[in-house]
Specification:
- The protein is globular and about 70 Å long.
- The two termini are 40 Å apart.
- It is α/β, with parallel strands linked by helices and 294 residues long.
- A 6-stranded mixed β-sheet has the order 5-4-3-6-7-10, sandwiched between helices.
- The chain is 40% helix and 21% strand.
- The longest helix is centred in the last third of the chain and has 22 residues, at 242-263.
Amino acid sequence: MSINLNYDYLDRVRRVAALYTKRKTSDLLDGDFHSRQHGRSLDFDDLREYHHGDDVNDIDWKSSSRVGRTLIRRYFADRKHDVLFIGDTGKKMTGDTPAGESKEQIALMAFGVCAYLFGKQGVNYALSCCGNEGTRISPFLSSPNHLEELIYTYQKTIESGEPQQSFAQTLANTAASFNRHMIMIIITDGEGLAEIDPALVRRLIYYNDVYVFKIEDAYLTSYGVYDLDSERLADPFLSMFKDLRQEEENIRKNMEASAQKTLIPNRIFYKNISKEEEILDALIWLFQRRKEVL
């Protein structure tokens, strides 16, 4: 499903993003952009011995009692870093979600809303995606024209046909193109998430904090679902078999359990979405979830 990238669509991106300020007043990125300069932030670095004038709130009492000396926690200094979006593409991203919405439109809106919010906070962002002509990585900029161009680029890449490489290869090659810390936001589906194995996880998190929007696929055992492989509506007869539906649900549960086992211990957090209205809450959840474990 193509969208018309006119001013009305961009206004809708801004209106959805504006809801953020009504739901959460603090800075979305507080504590999540850090550098290797020591200072105050939410990201713990190491311990050192207490010196006169240090903040007593930073004392790590458990570690101090273990070694017999007063130790304080040190943190990375806050500094805003670039945001790199990596978007999944191909025919599979043109399907529908269980809610009957377009996966493509949700992917575009997820990118647009996030990029708009980051741009409002003075953060530069870029987009990497692979189509039938190969991978494109945009410059890191922050402006309305940049946002409009990248939404258009992402749409055209999704609709260009099958990508030249797997999504896992796009992730690996994109991560290997940079050797500095960034916030990485991945937009994919269940199939793309399943491609992220432990070796790829290590490459992704070496420099980056990683967040994932996982767009859910419609069930083939639902009535009136379009089958992308056969390019026709799925046989409505399939929706009559409860055992078949249960098997489809079990397959997804197993994929979910495998993803959680691979990603969560490495602090890669993801959120399932199937409706456009879920994007904003998913974004807030992802950043809050990370802050809870730091």
